[in-house]
Structures are given as C-alpha cells and as structure tokens.
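thought: fold this chain, then report.
action: predict
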Amino acid sequence: LGFSSFPPPAALAAMAAAGEDDAAWERAIAAASKSASSASAAPKTLTLDGAVKSTTGRLPSPAVLERVAGSLEELSVAGARLSSLAGLPRLPALRRLSLPDNRLSGAAVLSAVAEACGATLRHLNLGNNRFAEVEELTPLTKLGVEVLDLYQCPVTKVKGYREKVFALIPSLKYLDGVDAEGNERLETDDEEDDEEEEEEGEDGEEGEGGEDEEGEEDDGEDEEGDDEDVEDGEGDEEEGDEEAEDEEDEAEENEPDADAEDKVNNGSKATLPNKRKRDNEDATNGKE
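observation:
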C-alpha cells in the first residue's frame, strides 16, 4: 500500500522533463535579458528563438517568465517545438508576439494569447504552425490585432481564406504582409509604428511647452510691430520737416529782391535830372 502513493513512472519522467525544460528556459531568458538591457533595467524585448527545444511542448512554468513579464513589449519564441501555450503569464505591455516554426493549433492556443496580452497586442506571428481552420482564429475577434502572419499554415489553403480572416478580425490591417486590397506592407510601416509608440508618452509634455513658446513668439511679434510703428512715425516726422524746409526755401527764392528794386528805382530817378540837364544845354547852344 505504501508504494501506491508514488506517481507512476511516466508521470515521474514528465516531471523530470519539465524540470529540465525550466532550467533550460531560465538560462535562455537570463542570457537574452542580459543582452537586451542593462543590469538596472527590465528588458522590453526578449528573443528566445531556437534557444530551447522543449521536450514537453510547453512554455516554462509561469514563475520563470513572470520575472520579466511586466516590462516586455516584444516576445519571440520561434522553433521551440511548442504545441501549447498553457501557463503563458500575464503580459500587460506586450505589443508583438512571434511564435513561428512551432506546432501550435486550435482555439485554446489563441485563447491563452488573448488572456495573457489581448489588451495591448498589435502584431502576432503564427507562421509555419498547424492552424487549419479559420474558426480556430475566433479568440482574436475582439482583440486589437493589426498585423497577423499565418504563412505556411494549412489554413492559408482554405477557399476564401483572406476574405474570411479579414471579416473575422475587424481590427486587422495586414494578413501575411498584405492588406485587404492586395497592397504589400512596407518595412517603413514598422518604423512608423515604433515612432508612434514613442511619441504617445511625449505628446502631453510637448503640448504644454509648445503653448508657452507660441505665446512668447506672439509677444515678440507684437513688440516688433510696436518698434516698426515707432520707426514709421519718426520717418513720417522727418519727411514732414524736410517738406517744410523745402517750402520755405521755395518761398524765399520767390520773394522779390528789395535791394534790387531799390537800385532800379534809384537808377531811374537819377537819370531824370541828367536828361533835363542835357535838354537845357542843347536849347542854349541852339539859340547861340
């Protein structure tokens, strides 16, 4: 009876395998976190592509990922032989989740994604997994996923696959790198998304500073306008003084020369006695 309380050999083997996986995941996470951030900062990006080949088909126990879960914005676990996402911890800031080249399938997998990071998730890469039916994607319906990759999944061969997926997920902008109208997604779109995310926290501060600067600029423009008005007034006064001086000069030039008139009058008066004197002399000489 005492031996019946021990787990069966298969369960013991599974527990041992899970323990080994957890140890491998811990080493991989520690190495990736060290390369992705400084010692004093929690990592925002965690890349575990090919770092672990899971023997159980599962992620590590929640406690292993919870140490970095709160800060993560990007998580990539490619080629890890995952067939389940059970135990995926809460990822409150995650925007990009990449799980390509695994063995994932079924709605339960995407339900785990929705529960762990559905509020913030925008990019989801499930390429080269085993999703075969559009209905398996139903848990993504109410999320805000904008970019979804399902390349090399059996579901891509379903008739009307693209139209059905776009209809199922209203927030979706790009499916397998192409929008609903057939336009390819450019690499610059990723850069613009990153810039928008960085600017979200800066808009408030820039708005307050911008208002103050605009007010100062307006004040400066008003002062410049006042200076211009003063300068224009001084210019008008100077022009008025010059015009007055010109009018005075013209008036002086037009005034008759009193001295010249006196000379003319004196000259005419002086000639009259001389003429009478000559006439008298001529008359005297004629009588003689």
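thought: worth noting. Helices lie at 9-36, 62-69, 107-117, 161-168, 187-200, 203-254, 258-287.
final: tokens above.
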